[in-house]
Sequence to fold (279 residues):
Amino acid sequence: MAYNLLKGKKGIIFGALDHHSIAWKVAEKAYEEGARFVLTNTPTAMRFGEIDELAKKCNATIIPADATSEADLENLIEKSMEIMGGKLDFILHSIGMSINVRKKKVYNELNYDFFHKTLDISAISFHKLMQISYRHDAINEWGSVVALSYIAAQRVLYGYNDMADAKALLESIARSFGYIYGREKKIRVNTISQSPTRTTAGKGVKGMDGLMDFTDRMSPLGNASAEECANFTIAMFSDLTKKITMQNIFHDGGFSSMGMSMRAMKQYNKSLDNPIEIE
Fold:
């Protein structure tokens, strides 16, 4: 069911690759809620994805851009404002990549060139995007900028590696830029810390299936799906959340507040020689 939450609003959605992408789901929901937007991803990612299909479905324009390139971001912002006929109302940053993770390099044996790329792609690109948007005065008052994060920014999760550092930096950038954007332009900046999700990128995390099973057992409401994350993101883009800014909001079924659940303990108990009685 659509509620016209984004009727008349315009934006940019970064990171839609294929049907598994959270950004893909956000684009579908944004279109259903009345928004117009530009889709963008790196030229390389676009060759391997299905973004043309999404653009046709949502009547959206695609502007290729490397989010680490200031020149590409300048072009993206300028062309988006030209296509949309003015300022934007929302931007989604759904970008993350670690060569160290892909190469299966453990955290105490990182390749630092790869590490720098992780931070640039997954976090510093968020700062570049907002700095260039600020310079162009590209976002309307009460606009909303959202980036997708993960609880590994606060807690150690096996296999997440240097992406955890990138997410911590991403959340810090949201707070620091959120203060400036809010003070000067009445624009809100937030991050959404999503449950582990079986996206194309998520599949590359070591032990993803086990992690998802564990977090699902630990979460009172279970893991949040990509579609549910998209619904929440739309709410964060809408005027219903005008006074929420500089926040990292956990969208994880309650996992972030848990220590141990009954379901997780029962599963753990199966591996013990002398099981603990659970009442």
Observations:
- The chain has one domain: 10-205+222-257.
- The two ends are 42 Å apart (CA to CA).
- Residues 10-205+222-257 form a domain with the Rossmann fold fold (CATH 3.40.50.720).
